[in-house]
Amino acid sequence: AGKTTVLEQIKATFLGREPMPPAKIAPTVGLNIGRLQVRRCKLICWDLGGQAALRAIWEKYYSEAHGLIYVVDAADTERIDESRNVLHALLGHPDLAGIPLLLLANKQDAQGALSPHEVEARFGLQQVLETSQPRQVFGTAALTGERIEESIHWLVEALRDSPRIG
Ligand SMILES: Nc1nc2c(ncn2[C@@H]2O[C@H](COP(=O)(O)OP(=O)(O)OP(=O)(O)O)[C@@H](O)[C@H]2O)c(=O)[nH]1
Ligand SMILES: [Mg+2]
């Protein structure tokens, strides 16, 4: 979907260095970590592998997470329902109750990509989120960095107001 490419763009944007060339980014098997500071908020980003066989380890990270960035390949319309189901299952986990959710409808540069509004409608988030749970959908293109900075600024503001940080 582009999680590691997103993390590289986040690091490039907020640490002011060149992102890793996309051709060098392999599917994630272990864990990539990004540490950065955004508007006096220290962020530690954990980027996990999305392959089905690797999803079982995600839940080891839930209890210590303050926010969730969920990256969807908006151009992969055949698997968008699978992505929605995986997110719904995630959000049903008690350790993620009320967590601020940043949903990135990624690959907006690709032909046939669903718009952020279409992804939002397709995902039916109100079925699985608490009424006051902070959530926002951004249409991003991680390859070029489009909308990455704005989306992280939104998340940082949501985290500031979050009861998960105490
Ligand atoms: N066109 C386009 N391709 C993208 C974009 N973001 C990522 N990609 C490509 O999508 C593929 C997968 O990107 P990754 O960042 O490795 O995806 P991932 O979600 O980390 O994948 P796993 O680690 O296997 O879970 C690569 O070929 C990327 O170059 C984007 O915004 N637009
Ligand atoms: Mg990856």
UniProtKB/TrEMBL annotation:
Keyword GTP-binding listed: yes
Gene3D superfamilies in the cross-refs: P-loop containing nucleotide triphosphate hydrolases
Single GO biological process annotation from the record: Golgi to plasma membrane protein transport
Keyword Signal recorded: yes
Family matches, as Pfam families: Arf
GO molecular function (one): GTPase activity
Binding-site list for GTP: G50, N106, K107, Q108, D109
Highest taxon in the source lineage: Eukaryota
GO CC annotation, single: Golgi apparatus
Keywords: GTP-binding, Magnesium, Metal-binding, Nucleotide-binding, Signal
InterPro entries per the UniProt record, alphabetical: P-loop_NTPase (IPR027417), Small_GTP-bd (IPR005225), Small_GTPase_ARF (IPR024156), Small_GTPase_ARF/SAR (IPR006689)
Binding positions (Mg(2+)): T4, T28
Family: Belongs to the small GTPase superfamily. Arf family.
Protein's name according to its UniProt entry: Uncharacterized protein
